[in-house]
Amino acid sequence: MNRTRCSNVDCDLTPYQDTTVYTEQLPRCPLCDVPLRLDEVLFGQPIP
User: Quick check: 28 and 7 in contact, CB under 8 A?
Assistant: First the structure.
């Protein structure tokens, strides 16, 4: 639950350790400006 990745499947951002608590706004990818998300498979998502 401490890993973050880009929501864009075509982005080259490597998932990374992230312990920051975001309360004001969603964090954005520094490479493609798409929202970041947890690096885990959520219910209903296909497993790559």
Answer: no
